[in-house]
Amino acid sequence: MTHEDYMAIAVREGVEGMRSGKGGPFGAVIVASGEIIGKGCNMVTSLNDPTAHAEMVAIRNACQAVKSFHLTDAVLYTSCEPCPMCLSAMYWAKIKEFFYCTDRFDAARIDFADQFIYDEIVLPLNDRTSKARQIHLPAAMALFEEWAASQTKISY
Amino acid sequence: MTHEDYMAIAVREGVEGMRSGKGGPFGAVIVASGEIIGKGCNMVTSLNDPTAHAEMVAIRNACQAVKSFHLTDAVLYTSCEPCPMCLSAMYWAKIKEFFYCTDRFDAARIDFADQFIYDEIVLPLNDRTSKARQIHLPAAMALFEEWAASQTKISY
Questions:
Q1: What is the pLDDT of residue B119?
Q2: Quick one: how many helices (H) and strands (E) in chain B?
Q3: Are residues A143 and B90, on separate chains, in Cβ contact within 8 Å?
Q4: Any catalytic annotation for residue A55?
Q5: Tell me: the pLDDT tens digits for A8-56?
Q6: Which residue from A minimizes the CA distance to B20?
Q7: Which residues touch A26 (CB under 8 Å, ≥6 apart)?
Q8: Which of A71, A85, A136 lies at the smallest CB-CB distance from B88?
Q9: According to the model, what pLDDT value does residue B100 have?
Q10: What is the pLDDT of residues B96-151, one digit of tens each?
Q11: Of A8, A113, A139, the CB nearest to B11
Q12: Cβ separation of B156 and A50 shorter than 8 Å?
């Protein structure tokens, strides 16, 4: 199987998901040691889940398959360049390599917000279109201190 | 209920989640029209789901509660500044306002990668620690064109 072969499967996931009304035109597969360990298509509108992007679904499925919250040696194939949510999820999952076909600019041309979100999240909190305010509750810092001091925690 | 009251509930979610071994020290609540419509704590390690951050869990729960993939008039309270995955998910969910206590720098001090990921995702694809490569498959662009031409699609 070549990179193109895996990518063709990712695109096919997107085609089938879109045509069956699951969500937007996006598909992804995750491969480790030559095996597909997770697949996904966009399911935002059918599941009422704005986090159900193809890559997120594939990551969650792969993690269930390997019973781990890390996919350290896995490669992700996604029909379109990941949005910042999915890209960040890849970092959390320790996926260090991915392939994509269309990109954020192609996605913008069919009215998806990927590029807008990339532009927004790098801005200082007060310069974004969304509002963010900090509240100082001592309990929040105490929560971090309790975590730092814990001898039994599972780090990730 | 004040912003501090809702935040105290978010922090409490994080405390209870951490102490019961669900995951890291993070909690979140989502409020619309004065009602809590979703809550969540970090469940990454207990669910083997790297996407199960407190804000993501709260967003998914709130969306199920209101049966929508958008939370247009909702406000999110999170015990710690959202990582870029969760911040992007808020944009996808159309949450336009959030409150937080601790921030990405506090999180870095207890060894969470939020700041690292913020730094990485703004880099050009070839300058990141992770590798990304574009593959040109005509089927991927055709998928976008089919979506654009669809008369029955549900946009988001």
A1: 95
A2: 7, 5
A3: no
A4: yes
A5: 999 999 999 999 999 999 999 999 999 999 999 999 999 999 999 999 9
A6: A153
A7: A14, A17, A41, A42, A53, A54, A55, A78, A79, A80
A8: A85
A9: 98
A10: 999 999 999 999 999 999 999 999 999 999 999 999 999 999 999 999 999 999 99
A11: A139
A12: yes
Check if A78 contacts B (Cβ < 8 Å).
Answer: no
Both tokens assigned to B40: 């969540």
Nearest-neighbour CA in chain A from B112: distance (Å): 8
Chain mean position to CA A93? 9
Q: Do B143 and A79 touch (CB under 8 A)?
A: yes
State how far residue A22 is from chain B, nearest Cα, in angstroms: 10
Catalytic choice (B16, B35, B55, B81) = B55
Taking contacts as CB-CB distances below 8 angstroms, the residues of chain A near B133 are 3, 98-100
- Assigned token pair, B136: 């040109």
**Per-residue pLDDT band at B16 (split at 50, 70, 90):** very high
Residues of chain B in contact with residue A60, where contact means CB-CB under 8 angstroms, are: 49, 51
Integer Cα distance of A127 and B52 in angstroms: 28
pLDDT, position B21: 97
Taking residues B27-53, report their average pLDDT.
Answer: 98
Spatial distance between the Cα atoms of A100 and B139, rounded to a whole number of angstroms = 12
Q: Is the ipTM of this complex over 0.90?
A: yes
Interval B66-70 mean pLDDT: 98
| Helix axis angle, B114-121 to A114-121, nearest 10° | 120
CA nearest to B37, candidates B100, B103, B93, B101: B93
Q: Which two tokens stand for residue B3?
A: 């912003």
Interchain contact A42–B (C-beta under 8 A):
no
State the pLDDT at residue A95: 98
Q: Do B139 and A8 touch (CB under 8 A)?
A: yes
Crossing angle for the helix pair A3-19 and B138-149, to the nearest 10 degrees: 10
